[in-house]
Amino acid sequence: MTFLGKVIHVSVDLVLVSTCLAGIKRNTGLAFKLETIENQTARDYSRRYLKMGESVYDYSVASCGSSSYFERK
Ligand SMILES: *[C@@H]1O[C@H](CO)[C@@H](O)[C@H](O)[C@H]1NC(C)=O
Q1: What is the pLDDT of residues 14-42, one digit of tens each?
Q2: Residue 35 alpha carbon to ligand 1 centre in Å
Q3: How far from 40 is each of 18, 25, 45, CA to CA, in Å?
Q4: pLDDT, tens digit (0-9, with 9 covering 90-100), for 45-58
Q5: pLDDT for res 18
Q6: Which domain holds residue 29?
Q7: Which range is the signal sequence, renumbered to this chain (predicted)?
């Protein structure tokens, strides 16, 4: 695999993990405790990372909601 291919693969995985965490947060209210990260810089990046996951999650929910392939149960 090329280097770029690897980068894309890792990025997609990171987005999926973040989206999964967002889904858990929305469904159970359980969110990753950002206070456990002591380093300010790392905490900021983690917050951004989790926010991105929530955006992807919201976008997916909106797309599924307006798709005729999905129904509400
Ligand atoms: C956080 O970690 C980064 C990378 O290890 C370091 O450059 C930075 O100075 C640290 N920031 C704080 C506030 O400790």
Answers
A1: 999 999 999 999 999 999 999 999 999 99
A2: 15
A3: 20, 22, 9
A4: 999 999 999 999 99
A5: 97
A6: 3-66
A7: 1-22
